[in-house]
Amino acid sequence: MQNVDVLVIGGGPGGTPAAMVLAQAGRSVMLVEAGPGLGGTCLFQGCIPSKIFRESAARLDDLARAARLGVRPAVPQPTIDWAAVQARRREVLERRAEGALAQARGIPTLEVVFGRARLTGSRRAVIEMRGKRREVGFERAILATGSLPNRLPVPGAELPGVLTSEGLIDIGYVPKRLALIGGGPIGVEMAQIFHLLGSAATILEAGSRILEPVDAVLAERLTQRLRRGGITVSTGVEVRSIEAEDGRYLVRYTSGAKELVAEADVVVMATGRHPNVDHLGLDQTRVRYNRHGVHVDAQLQTDEHGIFAIGDLVGHPMFAHWASAQALAVAGHLLGLPEAFPSPDRNSAVIFSRPELSMAGLTEEAARAAGHPVSVAEYDYRGDARAQIDDDADGLLRLVYRSDDRRILGVHALKEGSSEIIGEAALAVAGGLRIEQLASAVHPHPTLTEAFGFAARRAGHPLANAL
């Protein structure tokens, strides 16, 4: 039986950086990945491929709006070559996976193994790979197996045209009609992407609004934007069944006392994800888990001493960058470094709708629920120079801060391009900056980042009326 210092199970955005940092520090590390390459769901079925689709959709949308900027396209009706889009997706994914593998294999003390690992005890595991079997012993282990798509348990959920978001990534055509069950980040992003590509899209959400954890004001504003753009958004619904009829699918649902039907060529289950604990062999250890994820302490250690869990495996928030932050914290902890573990109230994220919805820290609702005395400063992008230049002035920035010490608790923006500026907000939240400190920073003009200064100065600044 081979022995290593650290066994890492899962080669996604959590497991891979943890393995590389530990190996670079001289630890003997084995990284086991069950998929086709390093990168996990983010690379192969999530973040990267969906954003590749979005880029194509956005370029198509830009061409359609080009006349407003004085541009007269040579081709009056631009079209999408879906085969070319999919070919580009495969090329980008392959290039990134190969790069990650080459980087990992360049570290002498890191061995990458493609197979399925299963714990057989508190310090042992077995790896199954193409009919072969390896046993490994370890001093420490990091579990980073990610999550899997949920499927709503309704009649018809297993029909061939009912896909998960991962199935939609591999689709060979742009459907004429697309019904998405679930109005979370995946449902909203995919609905808008395929709508811009030519699909008639419908979102069916069980909750009272889409994007439940997101700032309520911005979620409502985005909802109106989606509806104005032609996407059907229905909330407070209960899906009862999915039926195949005459080459189409009928999604039967109720809204209040009404019984309604959404017709589609493809139905997507965008009902969230659940931690992937299957086949991990946790029952051979003291690790506790349930449908919400693996139980861990403040240092992300499970109930089995020496075994840690990170990323989607421990539940929400389920973001690639969150898994990476946890991975680096655990790696630092195992190396004896004074590494701070990430706190959810300082997380940042982007929903790649159009316009993008970006966030850092607490929403107004979450801050009030936590007992903070809350004030909010806003900046409407309708008066913003850069937004007017870009011909997309529909947007809003909201700064959430404490009324007493003026410390910034959260920043939330609905604006195309906000994904590139939310890093400043993440620093403000993580550093506990006061609203006056953000107001005093000199921001370049004309840029979207100016909004931070404008909004902050309007929060009680003596020159607020002049801004």
Task: Describe the structure in your own words.
With 467 residues, the chain is an alpha/beta fold. It has helices at residues 15-24, 40-44, 47-64, 82-105, 165-169, 185-197, 216-228, 320-334, 364-369, 385-389, 422-430, 435-440, 450-457; strands spanning 2-9, 29-33, 110-114, 116-119, 124-129, 132-143, 147-149, 162-164, 177-181, 200-205, 232-235, 237-245, 248-255, 258-264, 266-269, 273-275, 289-290, 293-294, 307-309, 348-351, 357-361, 374-380, 396-402, 408-414. Strands 1, 2, 3, 4, 5, 6 and 19 form a seven-stranded mixed β-sheet that branches. It has a five-stranded parallel β-sheet with strand order 8-15-9-10-11. α3 packs antiparallel against α4 and α3 (47-64) packs across α6 (185-197). The longest helix has 24 residues, at 82-105. The chain is globular and about 65 Å long.
| Low-pLDDT residue intervals, each spanning 5 or more residues | none
Please describe the biggest sheet, giving its number of strands, its sense, and whether it closes into a barrel: 7 strands, mixed
Class of secondary structure makeup: alpha/beta
Query: Termini, distance in Å?
Result: 69 Å
Q: Quaternary arrangement of the chains shown?
A: single chain
Overall pLDDT metric: 94
Give the percentage of residues in beta strands.
Answer: 25-35%
Number of helices: 13
**Cα Rg:** 24 Å
Name the helicity range. Answer: 25-40%
| Overall number of strands | 24
List the main descriptive attributes of the protein structure presented here.
5-stranded parallel β-sheet, alpha/beta, 467 residues, 24 strands
